[in-house]
Amino acid sequence: MNAPNVKLHPTAQPQVSAKRYAIVLAGGSGTRLWPLSRSSKPKQLLCLNGAESLLQQTVLRTLPMVDPAHVCTVTSSEYRFEVAGQLLALDAALASGVLAEPMGRNTLPAIAWAVARIARETPDAVIGVFSSDHAVADSDAFLRAWQAAEAAAKEGYIALFGMQPTEAATGYGYIQSGQPLAGAGALSEVHQALRFVEKPDVATAQGYLSSGDYFWNGGMFVFRADHFLAMVRQHQPQIFSAAEALAEKNDMQASSDVYASMPDLSIDYGLLELTDKVAVVPVDMGWNDLGSWEAIYQQRDKDAQGNMTEGDVLAIDSQENLLWSEHGLVATLGVTNLAVVQTRDATLVCPRDRVQDLKTLVSAVKQDHAHLTEIHLTVTRPWGSYTILEEGVGYKIKRILVNPGAKLSMQMHYHRSEHWVVIEGTARITNGDQEIYLEENESTYIPKTNRHRLENPGKVPLQIIEIQTGPYLEEDDIVRFDDVYGRIPG
Question: Could you tell me the domains of the chain?
């Protein structure tokens, strides 16, 4: 078969439609970009190829087509405040559309829940679903593919974006494209999807690349809400019933009991491979899943010696390296084809051609240094963030930043006392039965078992240095009595 034309024809200028919605999936975690990506801050929340995070880039790509109030982002309850904060920086309406899963159940339950919510308001909504952790170089091609996919969605299809392959990659799923759908205009650019193949071997992938009718499955698709829910009801009635129950409650945080009742299924296995109403839009939009340090090296600009650098880097007599520093100077001399990634608490050094094996290394790190795979020294919270500056036996020093108007929970600790010194802004502090205000260079002492709360009543960020002392200093020594963010007490 001749390769379909992946350069889509020009279409009408994208316009926001009252019946168009977007669902952004932002719940995944992974270790392939360790030590930058960790379980508490996966790659979709990181700035890997620009000033915005991958999540923010994904959402911004949708806004020429979708009203911000019609963007629904599904994420883990662990990430919901970070996700909402990043979206708030773009538009307040985006932050109000964050749905939080209590546990991972793969893509089909997450999508079905969001679609069921949308359908209660707009049953015939046309919905685009997009992964939050991928990069797209050509946003115009993305929008044209979306418009073409909508033409098929209105005919009852789930229309997938088929990414133009650039190599015989074995880490991606493939879609085989068949004949164009019958119809004129944008519909003629959409093809019947014949089969799906998961991660073929090298020889098979090379054959797919040569054939011209196989495309990478990038996890982007478009459908009509009522048609999609009908398919789910037919093929996965358990997921359908649970999604409808969650939508009826209209909570932004899903019930653990209801969510746990849904089987763990991807949309590919749970739906797409069970129906013949699947189409594919071939598109060349510079798609990359940024799934490894090598993928980032290949996408980013390099210097004259072929080095990709980020942060404070000095490379002498060094060629074709990925050199990334989040803290301090990375200096190299006479090295070639290395990946060096330095954060404040961990450094990765390996040959670039071994970054695909990073999972093995991270598993070994997790055995003796589990915290280095889970959290960064700077941790985001709904009220701001904290950074661990130093810790040792019986003490820990943090820098705490509280956003204007924000406040921490009313809480206490059984095992530690705290000393607070204000270095910027004004703090309102509840300490036992007292309420006091502190300004720069003023301090207070919080004995263990005292109920206390830190608030920022001002218009500028509040920064304090916190010195914890005691026999146990971990984050689970917090008893919450009142919390405006709805976190579980304890």
Answer: 20-288 (3.90.550.10), 293-368 (no CATH), 378-482 (2.60.120.10)
